[in-house]
Amino acid sequence: MVEGVLARGDRRVAEAVEAAWQKGCRFDGWSEQFSLAPWLEAFAEKGIDPEFYVTRERAEEETLPWDHLDCGVSRSFLLEEYHKAKEGEKTLDCRWHGCYDCGLCGDFGCANILDRLCEGKEPQRQGKEPPSPAEPLRSRIRDRDKFKVRIRFTKRDEARFLSQLDMVRLFSRVVRRAALPILYSQGFNPRPQISFGPPPPVGVESEGEYADLMLARPISPRELVARLNQNLIAGVQVLQAQIIDPKARSLMSRIEVADYTIEVRLDGASSGMATKDGPQKEKLEKFVTSLTKLSDKVIAARLQSLSGSTALLRILGRAGSQGSFKPFELPDLWKEKFTEEGLVLEKVKRVGLYYYRGGELKDLFEI
Questions:
Q1: For residue 2, how many C-alpha atoms fall within 13 Å in the half-sphere facing its CB?
Q2: 0.85 exceeded by the pTM?
Q3: Is the pLDDT of residue 139 over 50?
Q4: Which CATH number does 143-251 carry?
Q5: Which of 30, 90, 266, 291 could cross-link with 298 by S-S, CB 3.0 to 4.6 Å?
Q6: pLDDT band at residue 71, thresholds of 50, 70 and 90?
Q7: Residue 141 pLDDT > 60
Q8: Least confident window among 57-71, 110-124, 202-216, 252-266
Q9: What InterPro entries has UniProt attached to this entry (predicted)?
Q10: Do 143-251 and 257-363 share a fold?
């Protein structure tokens, strides 16, 4: 009943919601936290009759609380669909059976994806129903006509706190806003065909992340970079794009090495750590030298520089489907060798991802 009032109520319900909050209603979406009594008290105090909102049948000409919101679909179309639903009548897929003039296409920039793929020619819709919403993007595109584009992008500043799931959502939206001819997967819940390399840990900046986009038609790398960057958020910037073989190995199966720069300091260490022959420098050098023995995920490591009380380490670690080096495990590895003081990570950045070919590290654009 409370959910019905909140879903169908108008602005007068707002005062009752505030009153319920003042009576202690918190996290009421959880059954163990929900209590009906304070809600009923709040409704009574503010003159709200729940039955008026929940059980009353509304006239078709009545002004609804959400009529001022424009989702693109017209009220007349929704009423027509309401009558058809009561009669058990179906509305066929407009991509294959003609336009129903719902109001969504036009001002909102939407377009029938089948019409777009047919490039202005009238598609043969009648008598054929697609097995899934993604079918128009798959059935009309042969494998040899698909185009895979590999992009390299950054993940800086506040964007470093985005999880991999957040990045998937971000690029799924950005490719639509950029009007890229992205292909979709088949199935009940089609997804844009975008695949990523192994993600950096949350909180780690990166100068070289990769993603592969499968497109229905070619687009110049320069134009693709420009379109994406116009719609991406601060901190995420596409640096490079290149068309590659659609049958090229996936990023997750290809990437083997991640390159990190890691700024560290010793807990309680003074600026003497940076002296040429200081004891702190000696400890760091011993630690870096032994990293490949302390962790099988470390391929190579070196002490790159010392400045004040901090040091900059450069570490090549394993990456990909076979397991990855985790920079945040360094303090634990330090404790295995030195117990009197701790290692503190000041800043971690991933500067590149690579794979091996002929014993040499190769860039992901070198296929």
A1: 17
A2: no
A3: no
A4: 3.30.70.580
A5: 291
A6: confident
A7: no
A8: 110-124
A9: DUF2344 (IPR018768), rSAM_sf (IPR058240)
A10: yes
Give the tokens for residue 276.
Answer: 């040429």
Q: Which amino acid does the sequence have at 91?
A: T
Neighbours of 294 (CB within 10 A): 17
Structure tokens at 365: 């654009």
The single residue listed with the structure tokens 């994806």 is 113
Which residue carries 């179906």 as its tokens?
A: 90
| C-alpha to C-alpha distance for 319 and 366, rounded to whole angstroms | 18
Q: And the tokens for 235? A: 């901190």
